[in-house]
Design brief:
The structure is a single chain. The protein has about 350 residues and is of the alpha/beta class. It contains ten helices and 14 strands. Strands 1, 2, 3, 4, 5, 6, 11, 12 and 13 form a nine-stranded mixed beta sheet that branches. It has a three-stranded mixed beta sheet with strand order 8-7-14, with no helix packed on it. It has a two-stranded antiparallel sheet with strand order 9-10.
Length: about 350
């Protein structure tokens, strides 16, 4: 079984200097490290050629974003498994083998992620993936180990391999044949939540997404855009609406979108109260962009299969659980099991 570990780089020389040594040191056997460069304008490529002359580099002519950048790069790679790995991730010894082994034992598992911990607080789950991702009934993403901005320390409480709803794009293992079958990531997402959309489409196609606790990586996070950034806010709000529209079953679609529109504008006015007018504007612009995107999304929706019973969607209301009932940990949702 061959594995391609593909790092999408965009002006990331500092990240490559810091994290590529662990990736090259601990990626062995039939696995190959490949750098896909998204039209960098810094001296990333010179650094790679001088310090890692044996690494394969795929040069793209401009910054296509996370989604299309990976689609263009992976179309040029032959392997049984693809690993989408952020440039700000430190891997550990034998980080690949447990995930591939778990996927081989479960042939219907198309996507899998390792345990993601914070690079700077190494006993704490990382925001972007933790121990596997889920969505609530209104499309709010959360993780085992992370509820909104509340992060848990890792005490081994999530050391069980299990099915999840979505795997983090920071370190995502994918069967290459399923990647090709599903057409990869949705180019129009550009960045943010494209991996959730991809995992949801995989589930709708009958595949499973899993978490492997026996592989551990450490993620910095926010390497391209900081957590508080109007551009990031725009992409998150726009793309969240898009993935709901594309993938929700018909019996849930209109009610969920109606609720999300209201909740998004509540969030927007909260930004105003916090004296963040640019963030407020980002939410408004995100909704305008979503409405303009609808004709294209309708075509995509018709091409996809939407399951009536979406396994793994948390049936509760995460906003109520978190802010009113003060449930700050995934384990507080004791009535919900991902098994």
């Amino acid at each position: 079984m061959t594995t391609a570990v593909v790092i999408l780089n965009w002006n990331g020389k500092k990240m490559l200097e810091r994290f590529l040594p662990s990736v090259t040191a601990y990626t062995t056997g039939d696995a190959e490290v490949i750098i896909a460069d998204n039209g960098s304008t810094d001296d990333s490529l010179d650094f790679l050629r001088n310090h890692y002359p044996c690494l394969r580099i795929i040069q793209l002519d401009k910054n296509y974003g996370f989604a299309e950048g990976y689609n263009r790069a992976l179309s040029q790679i032959q392997a049984d498994y693809f690993v989408l790995l952020n440039d700000d991730v430190e891997v550990t010894p034998r980080w690949i083998e447990p995930v591939i082994s778990q996927m081989q034992q479960h042939p219907n598992t198309a996507i899998c992620q390792p345990k993601l911990l914070m690079f700077d607080q190494r006993d704490t789950f990382e925001y972007a993936g933790g121990a596997g991702g889920f969505l609530d009934k209104y499309g709010y993403p959360f993780c085992r180990g992370r509820m909104f901005t509340s992060l848990e320390n890792d005490h081994g409480q999530y050391n069980d391999a299990c099915r999840i709803f979505w795997a983090s794009g920071a370190a995502m293992f994918v069967r290459s044949d399923v990647w090709k079958q599903l057409g990869g990531l949705d180019n129009d997402f550009f960045a943010h939540m494209e991996e959730i959309d991809f995992c949801w489409r995989a589930k709708n196609a009958g595949y499973e997404v899993e978490y492997c606790p026996h592989s551990v990586v450490y993620h910095v996070g926010g390497g391209t855009l900081p957590k508080s950034n109007p551009r990031k806010t725009y992409l998150n709000f726009r793309n969240n609406m898009a993935l709901l529209y594309k993938n929700l079953p018909q019996n849930r679609l209109h009610w969920v979108l109606f609720c999300r529109i209201i909740l998004d504008y509540v969030a927007a006015f909260k930004f105003l109260l916090e004296r963040k007018p640019k963030e407020f504007g980002a939410v408004v612009e995100a909704h305008k962009a979503f409405y303009k995107w609808l004709p294209s999304l309708k075509v995509k929706r018709k091409q996809l299969k939407q399951l009536k019973n979406v396994s793994g969607l948390y049936p509760g209301r995460l906003l109520v659980d978190y802010y009113l009932l003060r449930k700050k940990k995934f384990s507080d949702l004791h009535f919900f099991s991902p098994k």
